[in-house]
Amino acid sequence: MNADLEETLKELGEGYRPVVDRLLAARTAESDGAARRPTFRLRLVRWTAAGLLAASVAGICLMTRTSVVDEPPVAASEPPAVPAAAPSPATPYTLALAPTPEAIDEIVRTQAADGSWANDFLTRQNAAALREVDATSVAYRKAVRYLRTKGLAPLTNDELHVLAARAKSA
Questions:
Q1: Burial class (CB in 10 A: 0-12, 13-18, 19+), 164
Q2: Residue 125 CB neighbour total at 10 angstroms
Q3: CA geometry: angle 127, 106, 110, nearest 5 deg
Q4: Rounded Cα–Cα distance for residues 13 and 7 (Å)
Q5: Cβ-contact 120, 150 below 8 angstroms
Q6: How far apart (Å, rounded) are the C-alpha atoms in residues 111 and 100?
Q7: φ, ψ for residue 123, nearest 5 deg
């Protein structure tokens, strides 16, 4: 201890000297290291628990695998059946490109409470589609308010029409 601490200890009184001596002795005591090494039994328990956990995870993975159902073989004379090309379902990204009343209803239905959609591009695109239909609608104003907080604006009409043309050609 330095002289300043010794002086403070004298000012505190004689009752504090044994406390300080115990604290100093504890700092300099050497440990034999036995407390740090886990015993064989503790290591065995840890490894057993890890093995059981790994086996449980493997068992769950095997139980949740889907089984493949074998289809009956097709006769050699029959041509293989080709599934008919179904029209592609409307995705959130294609709804704004062909703004039918059903698409606009879906756009408004999927709008979040803060005025956004799944990401900022989709929000910009849907806001532009709503603007073309009705620029005074509540859904459009909420979307514009959200975009302004992000420093963005809805797509321009030209950008929206370019996206629609790309979607038609694809």
A1: middle
A2: 25
A3: 70
A4: 10
A5: yes
A6: 17
A7: -65, -45
- Residue 70 amino acid letter: D
How far is residue 166's CA from residue 161's CA, in Å, rounded to a whole number?
9
pLDDT single digits (tens) 25-48? 876 656 555 556 668 888 888 999
Could you tell me the two tokens for 25?
Answer: 């002795």
pTM over 0.90: no
Structure tokens belonging to residue 7:
């002086």
What is the predicted pLDDT for the residue at 74? 55
What is the DSSP track for the chain?
A: --HHHHHHHHHH-GGGHHHHHHHHHHHHPPP-STTTSPPHHHHHHHHHHHHHHHHHHHHHHHHHPPPPPPPPPPPTTSPPP----PPPPPPTTTGGGS--HHHHHHHHHT--TTS--SSHHHHHHHHHHHHHH-TT-HHHHHHHHHHHHTT--PPPHHHHHHHHHHHHH-
> What pLDDT does residue 85 have?
46
d(CA 94, CA 40): 63
